[in-house]
């Protein structure tokens, strides 16, 4: 498109909601539509850092995808973290009150070596690796995020779970002085999640410590959060303070709230609709500066990780165990 054409675009067309909300987007959109670089303009997107090509092994394991990354601006400003409020912009606006260091995690239950550890001791000797995962929220949007983290299995094994450890339960911090959203009873705090032990030990399950090569921002669940890429986003619990090995399926926050809408497993499944909306498609937060949402794309069984995880659910009726 020529500059002259670009200037003829009516304002109503370029100031759609996403652009209107974010001045950076408007400027970047104009730059893109006029194919003009904005030299020295601090508002333009910085060039993407070069990324190592994906090895066949990484692709086979599901550890990385070459899909377009969601921009860091969107990953860190469009969030669900109800402890900071229910609006998507609330967590990034209110994040500063969350103190992420020092941070201790209490590990207990069916294991030989329970303990209360500082985050640095919990991760000692483990080097965070990059994983580029799709994240599919149950609400029908998705992102592609380059996480940093360690396999959850590597951390859990240190506590030597016993044969009675059939499930792992996780709890988020619930401190009203640090989390302004706790005054609203949107959820029966603290936020709790759980995994079956084989899911917790699966190589795709990540204990994330960062994203885009940097420490995790508070709004994304600093200092430590789960990332379980084949399950709806709410299973990926943020700002974890407690891990328990348990024998029975543990209660979880969203399941407690609406058991017919949010199952314990919550594997991404386009064939099982949410009672109030279809799960067949999703809107990818796509990595373009001009528009927050791209066109709808089909949602994939297990969020595209069926090859890696379907075996864990063999013989299970995924409609019953949604
Ligand atoms: N403690 C806690 N963890 C949480 C949530 C939350 O509200 N509180 N929201 C969940 C939901 S619904 C999603 S989609 C993801 C969003 O993660 P992101 O903001 O890093 O993209 O976090 C999940 N983990
Ligand atoms: Mo979500």
UniProtKB/TrEMBL annotation:
<dbReference type="InterPro" id="IPR022867">
    <property type="entry name" value="MsrP"/>
</dbReference>
<dbReference type="GO" id="GO:0030091">
    <property type="term" value="P:protein repair"/>
</dbReference>
<dbReference type="InterPro" id="IPR036374">
    <property type="entry name" value="OxRdtase_Mopterin-bd_sf"/>
</dbReference>
<feature type="binding site">
    <location>
        <position position="172"/>
    </location>
    <ligand>
        <name>Mo-molybdopterin</name>
    </ligand>
</feature>
<keyword id="KW-0479">Metal-binding</keyword>
<feature type="binding site">
    <location>
        <position position="79"/>
    </location>
    <ligand>
        <name>Mo-molybdopterin</name>
    </ligand>
</feature>
<dbReference type="GO" id="GO:0043546">
    <property type="term" value="F:molybdopterin cofactor binding"/>
</dbReference>
<feature type="binding site">
    <location>
        <begin position="82"/>
        <end position="83"/>
    </location>
    <ligand>
        <name>Mo-molybdopterin</name>
    </ligand>
</feature>
<dbReference type="InterPro" id="IPR000572">
    <property type="entry name" value="OxRdtase_Mopterin-bd_dom"/>
</dbReference>
<dbReference type="GO" id="GO:0016672">
    <property type="term" value="F:oxidoreductase activity, acting on a sulfur group of donors, quinone or similar compound as acceptor"/>
</dbReference>
<dbReference type="GO" id="GO:0046872">
    <property type="term" value="F:metal ion binding"/>
</dbReference>
<keyword id="KW-0732">Signal</keyword>
<feature type="binding site">
    <location>
        <begin position="236"/>
        <end position="238"/>
    </location>
    <ligand>
        <name>Mo-molybdopterin</name>
    </ligand>
</feature>
<feature type="binding site">
    <location>
        <position position="137"/>
    </location>
    <ligand>
        <name>Mo-molybdopterin</name>
    </ligand>
</feature>
<dbReference type="Pfam" id="PF00174">
    <property type="entry name" value="Oxidored_molyb"/>
</dbReference>
<feature type="binding site">
    <location>
        <position position="225"/>
    </location>
    <ligand>
        <name>Mo-molybdopterin</name>
    </ligand>
</feature>
<comment type="similarity">
    <text>Belongs to the MsrP family.</text>
</comment>
<feature type="region of interest" description="Disordered">
    <location>
        <begin position="41"/>
        <end position="62"/>
    </location>
</feature>
<protein>
    <recommendedName>
        <fullName>Protein-methionine-sulfoxide reductase catalytic subunit MsrP</fullName>
        <ecNumber>1.8.5.-</ecNumber>
    </recommendedName>
</protein>
<keyword id="KW-0500">Molybdenum</keyword>
<comment type="subunit">
    <text>Heterodimer of a catalytic subunit (MsrP) and a heme-binding subunit (MsrQ).</text>
</comment>
<feature type="domain" description="Oxidoreductase molybdopterin-binding">
    <location>
        <begin position="99"/>
        <end position="254"/>
    </location>
</feature>
<comment type="function">
    <text>Part of the MsrPQ system that repairs oxidized periplasmic proteins containing methionine sulfoxide residues (Met-O), using respiratory chain electrons. Thus protects these proteins from oxidative-stress damage caused by reactive species of oxygen and chlorine generated by the host defense mechanisms. MsrPQ is essential for the maintenance of envelope integrity under bleach stress, rescuing a wide series of structurally unrelated periplasmic proteins from methionine oxidation.</text>
</comment>
<keyword id="KW-0560">Oxidoreductase</keyword>
<feature type="binding site">
    <location>
        <position position="220"/>
    </location>
    <ligand>
        <name>Mo-molybdopterin</name>
    </ligand>
</feature>
């Amino acid at each position: 498109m020529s500059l002259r054409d670009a200037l003829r675009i009516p304002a109503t067309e370029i100031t759609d909601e996403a652009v209107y909300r974010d001045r950076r987007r408007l400027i970047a959109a104009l730059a893109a539509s006029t194919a003009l670089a904005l030299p020295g303009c601090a508002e333009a997107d910085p060039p993407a850092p070069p990324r190592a090509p994906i090895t066949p092994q990484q692709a086979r394991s599901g550890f990385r995808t070459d899909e377009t990354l969601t921009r860091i601006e969107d990953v860190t400003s469009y969030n669900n973290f109800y402890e900071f409020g229910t609006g998507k912009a609330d967590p990034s606006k209110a994040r500063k009150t969350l103190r992420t260091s020092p941070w201790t995690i209490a590990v207990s239950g069916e294991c030989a070596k329970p303990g209360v550890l500082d985050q640095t001791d919990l991760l000692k000797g483990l080097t965070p690796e990059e994983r580029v995962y799709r994240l599919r929220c149950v609400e029908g949007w998705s992102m592609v995020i380059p996480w940093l983290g360690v396999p959850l299995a590597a951390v859990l094994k240190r506590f030597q779970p016993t044969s009675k450890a059939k499930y792992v339960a996780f709890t988020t911090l619930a401190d009203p002085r640090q989390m302004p959203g706790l005054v609203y009873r949107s959820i029966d705090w603290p936020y709790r999640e759980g995994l079956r032990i084989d899911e917790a030990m699966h190589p795709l399950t990540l204990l994330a410590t960062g994203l885009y090569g940097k420490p995790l921002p508070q709004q994304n669940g600093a200092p430590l959060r789960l990332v379980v890429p084949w399950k709806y986003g709410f299973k990926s619990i943020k700002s974890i303070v407690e891990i328990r090995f348990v024998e029975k399926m543990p209660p979880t926050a969203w399941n407690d709230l609406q058991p017919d809408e949010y199952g314990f497993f919550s594997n991404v499944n386009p064939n099982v609709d949410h009672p109030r909306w279809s799960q067949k498609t999703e809107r990818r937060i796509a990595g373009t500066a001009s528009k927050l949402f791209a066109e709808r794309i089909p949602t994939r069984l297990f969020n595209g990780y069926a090859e890696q995880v379907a075996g864990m659910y063999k013989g299970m009726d995924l409609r019953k165990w949604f």
